[in-house]
Amino acid sequence: MAPLPLTSTRTLITKEGEFDLDFVKEAAQDEVKPHPGKYHTIGILYHTYYHILACVGFYHLFYLKWQSLLWVIFYHYCGIIGIGTGVHRLYSHRAFKATVPLRILLLFMYAIANGISAFSWSRDHRVHHKYSDTDADPHNAKRGLFYSHFGWLLLHKHPEVINKGKNINLDDLYNDPILMFHHRHYTLIRFITCIVIPIFVPTYFWGEYWLYAWTAGHGLVQVFTSHCSYTVNSLSHQFGMKPYDTSYLASECRLSNGLTLGEGHHNYHHAFPYDYSHGEFNSFLLPFNLFRLPNGSTTFIETCALLGLAYDLRRPPKEMVLRRMNRTGDGSLKVE
Asked: Where does it mainly reside (predicted)?
């Protein structure tokens, strides 16, 4: 199928401009109750091990061959693209459609960060959008910066996350054979992407010391890539302006945007979650604007669209964005 024009607005939207796939946010609760979840012992041990490994890997960065240093940077950004473009914009929000080769590539790149499966990530993210800033939000920002960034991974899920998660429509995920294959065989896939490849490539092709490849290419890349993505849950829900909707804690955070290649325009994203560009000014095909920040994921999607690998890219009409800003924004961004 030939790709649609990059400005296509073929969307599923409500009158308020929300994506009509179980993403319409429910009213947020004012009071935050104590978290009843128990500590996740296995998760604590897992993260402790990898953070120690990452610290050693950071030290070993200074001893890497130049080829290995470039490899570490490249592999890190592959993981960032896999998260932002793959599980987030494609599978969680269906912001665009992708051909089979691109879907396989994105799922492979996502596994570099060694998180939960793409299916589970997309499910939890849909819960986050529908119940944002409530007890049913997996990383409720009202519980503080540390909790929303990393603390939630050290606890078992809040009961409300599990209960409300049962109300989310996941039919499109279950009906995707590539995604479900990835889900069923994720243990093997991430073993290959997180351990085998980052260690084998530098040691075999340019003779890097295996220990440096293990600590820096494996441990450091995994931890740093993960923490960059976590800033969207933490920094982008605590710091920045809210020109599109003040009812969300989500804000426009430039630091998070830089660390994640374009995921930091979070207030816009919660207002228009189906937009493939993740921001009003993020497309490099739009006229220049000083507010626009570099967005690697958007550029990646647009490049894939030009190559025929991505299509049906979705964006809301500009008039809808302006109406939303005037109705619910904080007035911090003036756009003609």
From this structure: membrane
Distance, CA of 249 to CA of 132 (rounded, Å): 8
CA angle in degrees (0–180, nearest 5) for 290-294-300: 140
Is the CB of residue 254 less than 8 Å from the CB of residue 261? no
Residue spans of alpha helices (H) in the chain = 41-60, 66-81, 100-110, 118-130, 145-149, 159-165, 171-174, 177-184, 186-191, 197-205, 210-212, 221-233, 254-259, 266-271, 296-306, 318-328
**Is the predicted pLDDT of residue 25 greater than 60, yes or no?**
no
Residue 272 backbone class (left: φ over 0; alpha: ψ -120 to 50; beta: rest): beta
Q: Torsion-angle region of residue 116: left (phi > 0), alpha (psi -120 to 50) or beta?
A: beta
Burial class (CB in 10 A: 0-12, 13-18, 19+), 43: middle
Query: From CA 191, how far away is CA 258, in angstroms rounded?
Result: 28
- pLDDT per position as a tens digit, 54-97: 999 999 999 999 999 999 999 999 999 999 999 999 999 999 99
Angle between helix 41-60 and 221-233 (nearest 10): 120
- Taking only the tens place, the pLDDT of each residue in 221-254 is 999 999 999 999 999 999 999 999 998 999 999 8
